[in-house]
């Protein structure tokens, strides 16, 4: 988050902000990134589009607009999205969250109604819920699993953590498995993606998420290291040439290329119009080429439509550039370069299951 965007958020939503109160935004759409440590009490309504397995996160969200110190509204409104009747039996997010909220009410004496006005889950219902198999109701998030694994390694096998810090940017290893797989994790710039590939008739590359990668590569501490197989190098080179695909069927590279092409054209088309943001355009080009921090939606904004040398096309593209500059900040690339200066531009970890 740039300083400029943080300033706008404070100016728009924080009633205790010492600077000028502003009205840039009417609606703030956010992940749980802002659920802790932000005053958003100039907003009197919160909509939970999802209900997390842990309802304390919902309480944290509500706490952003329900701040002690400055009263802005007589009433605060909370709206919650729940699955339809058809999906409720499968997802059960409302039932799970309400029973967990019962624990919070009783343990902490919390008397606010978070999910609805009739929020009175019973002890008997809670007992039956807790006696069910936990796997039916929820699961640890991937990041929690990884943190737990890392904490266990740090505590019981600190020598492994020390060894990891000395590994080169490209690591290749092999372990035993019931079926052959080559799993590759790549970090290019600040973007991260994973693939798995089989051998012989099943040699097509499949994109996988980090959770699936974790299942494929994990093994006991005492698992012996095997030699790389004869299949490894051809398949490894194939994964390196592979470009991730988006759901709409276009590759990441082609989308990035179109964005860079439009940015380069804008430098040419705007040369005679005394445009003041050439340095920022160059920063966007450098980011797309080397750091890959812009999400797909941003790349679409820059490369979704071919830039043409006419007033309307240029005006719309300039508006996009100014939007990016406002939300990313003038110096956003310098921050990225500073945080990445001691990191390799590309890291590849390959684990062959033999």
Describe the structure.
Helices cover 46% and strands 12% of the residues. Helix 11 packs across helix 13. The chain folds into 2 domains: 135 residues, no CATH class; 187 residues, no CATH class. It contains 15 helices and 7 strands. A hairpin with a 7-residue loop joins strand 5 and strand 6. Strands 3-7-4-5-6 form a 5-stranded mixed beta sheet, sandwiched between helices. A two-stranded parallel sheet has the order 1-2. With 354 residues, the protein is of the alpha/beta class. About 7% of the residues have low confidence.
- Along the chain, the helix and strand elements come as HEHEHHHHHHEEEEHHHHHHHE
Radius of gyration in whole Å, from Cα?
25 Å
The total of helices stands at 15
By secondary-structure content and strand pairing, the structural class works out as alpha/beta
Pfam families: Helicase_C
InterPro entries: Helicase_C-like, P-loop_NTPase
Keywords: ATP-binding, Helicase, Hydrolase, Nucleotide-binding
GO molecular function: helicase activity
């Amino acid at each position: 988050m740039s300083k400029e965007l943080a300033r706008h958020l404070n100016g728009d939503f924080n009633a205790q902000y010492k600077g000028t109160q502003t009205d840039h935004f009417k609606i703030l759409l956010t992940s749980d990134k802002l659920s802790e440590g932000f005053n958003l009490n100039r907003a009197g309504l919160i909509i939970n589009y999802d209900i997390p397995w842990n309802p304390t996160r919902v309480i944290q969200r509500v706490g952003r607009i329900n701040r002690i110190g400055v009263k802005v509204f007589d009433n605060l409104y909370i709206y919650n999205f729940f699955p339809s009747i058809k999906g409720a039996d499968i997802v059960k997010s409302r039932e799970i969250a309400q029973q967990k909220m019962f624990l919070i009410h009783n343990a902490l004496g919390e008397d606010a109604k978070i999910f609805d006005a009739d929020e009175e889950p019973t002890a008997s219902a809670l007992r039956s819920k807790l006696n069910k198999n936990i796997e039916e109701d929820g699961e640890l998030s991937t990041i929690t699993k990884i943190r737990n694994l890392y904490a266990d390694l740090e505590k019981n096998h600190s020598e492994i953590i020390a060894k990891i810090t000395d590994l080169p940017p490209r690591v290749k290893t092999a372990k035993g498995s019931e079926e052959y797989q080559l799993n590759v994790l790549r970090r290019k710039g600040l973007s991260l993606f994973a693939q798995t590939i089989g051998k012989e008739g099943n040699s097509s590359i499949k994109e996988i998420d980090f959770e699936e990668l974790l299942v494929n590569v994990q093994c006991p501490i005492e698992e012996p290291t095997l030699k790389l197989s004869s299949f490894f190098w051809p398949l490894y080179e194939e994964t390196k040439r592979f470009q991730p695909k988006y759901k709409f069927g276009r590759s990441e590279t082609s989308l990035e290329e179109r964005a860079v092409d439009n940015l380069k054209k804008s430098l040419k088309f705007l040369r005679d119009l005394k445009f003041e943001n050439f340095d920022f355009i160059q920063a966007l080009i450098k980011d797309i080429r080397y750091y890959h921090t812009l999400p797909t939606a941003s790349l679409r904004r820059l490369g979704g439509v071919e830039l043409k040398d006419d007033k309307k096309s240029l005006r719309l593209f300039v508006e996009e550039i100014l939007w990016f500059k406002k939300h990313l900040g003038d110096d956003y690339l310098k921050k990225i370069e500073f945080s990445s200066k001691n990191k390799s531009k590309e890291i590849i970890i390959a684990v062959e299951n033999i």
